[in-house]
Amino acid sequence: MFTTALSATAPDAPLRPTTIERRDVRPDDVDVRVTYCGVCHSDLHALHSSQSHDGMLVPGHEFVGEVVAVGAAVTDFTPGDPVAVGNIVDSCGTCRMCLSGQENFCVEFPTLTYGGRDRIDSSMTAGAWAGRYVVRDRFVYHRPASLDAAAVAPLMCAGITVWEPMRATGVGPGTRLGVVGIGGLGHLSVRLGRALGAEVTVFTTSPGKTEDAKGLGSAHVVVSSDTNAMDAARDSLDLVIDTVAVEHDLAPYLRVLDLDGTLFSLGHLGSVTIAMTDLLVGRKRLASAGSGGHRFTQDLLDFCGEHGITADVEVLPAAQVNVALDRLTRGDVRYRFVLDLRDIDAVQCRGSIHQGFGL
Fold it and tell me: What are the φ and ψ backbone dihedral angles of 233, each rounded to 5 degrees?
């Protein structure tokens, strides 16, 4: 099966439409017509990295769509079903992590939606900035039809990244939750935490984001550059989710934790340096997490369907993908870009997509 995709052939090269071939549907596969796919900071990182390219890179790992066809062994999906897929499309299925529903921690490493190796034919996976995607049924999720489809797409990356730590630590009524940064991950942290019943405190470097944070459900807002405000917040929280994507000092956020509190650093995945006394005093913990396994991902979608929770998105046509990437690089988005891919095949066939890409 052939479909149109948005691809780059070299690091930092502009995205251009091309035709790619998807594999034939296997017995446990689902063929999905992609309708919307998010634009994530990890897509930017992949497009900048020469190691991410194997001749051509098609990004896109948080997407929604409808089922077109299913393999002979698939029983949980039928054509027409609204579905969502995240950044994992396969795993070994037999290790301890996979058997516990934590495929994101697969001992043999999960197969990523793009830039990964297919576990059967060893081909390189191509992402969902495309018209179609063929994926193993285990990694397809039922999408609440009541929610705006475009606004669901970021739940499959930003949403699940913050949801799994909340579920694993039992966030609920009485939890004092801190959220550092109000972006793609941060705004969903506030919205989900509030829906779980937590009292949410937002930490931001921008005083102008106070009203935004309160509108999302935050009870308190602390400007982190205000030393007096940070001192007043000391020892006041049970859990802090840090979503800031650049290197920064974690010590101030360890200090706002109460006894046995935990700081989840989710945004910056590079090296960090901390003083052990910041952990020692109060028996505090520093943790991280990434993506989510099957049980927490479907749990997230079900919860969002019940509570009407989606991401705040700006939807752009596929032909403006390079505009989205440029604006994301500059931080000019509130809070997530999503590409409309519903007619990408038809547009390329008419030839007009080339005008939108400046070709």
Answer: -85, 0
Residue 98's H or E segment, with its range, is helix 96-99
How much is the mean pLDDT over the chain?
Answer: 94
- The yes-or-no verdict on residue 32 having pLDDT over 70 is yes
Same domain, 39 and 58: yes
The H or E element containing residue 328 is helix 321-329
Please give the residue range of the domain that contains residue 131: 2-156+292-356
Please give the pLDDT value at position 50. Answer: 62
Q: Nearest to residue 220, comparing CAs of 187, 163, 176?
A: 176
Nearest to 338 by CA among 353, 357, 316: 316
Amino acid code (one letter) for 81: D
Name the 3-class secondary structure at 276.
helix
| pLDDT tens-digit series, residues 260-279 | 999 999 999 889 999 999 99
Q: Can you say whether residue 53 is alpha, beta or left, with left for phi > 0 and alpha for psi between -120 and 50 degrees? A: beta
CA atoms of 49 and 12, how far apart (whole Å): 8
Nearby residues of 249 by Cβ (< 8 Å), 6 or more positions away: none
* 99-102-103-104 Cα dihedral, nearest 10 degrees: -160
What is the arithmetic mean of pLDDT over 287-309?
96
User: How many distinct structural domains can be found in the chain?
Assistant: 2
Q: Give the CATH number, domain containing residue 214.
A: 3.40.50.720
Torsion of CA 252, 244, 331, 85, to 10 degrees: -160
DSSP H/E element including 181? none
What's at 274, amino acid-wise? Answer: I
Residues 329, 245 share a domain? no
Based on the domain organization, do 206 and 146 belong to the same domain?
no
- Tallying the residues shown for the chain, one arrives at 359
- Please report how many Cα atoms fall inside a 13 Å half-sphere around the Cα of residue 353, on the Cβ side: 23
Statement to judge: residues 227 and 296 lie in one domain: no
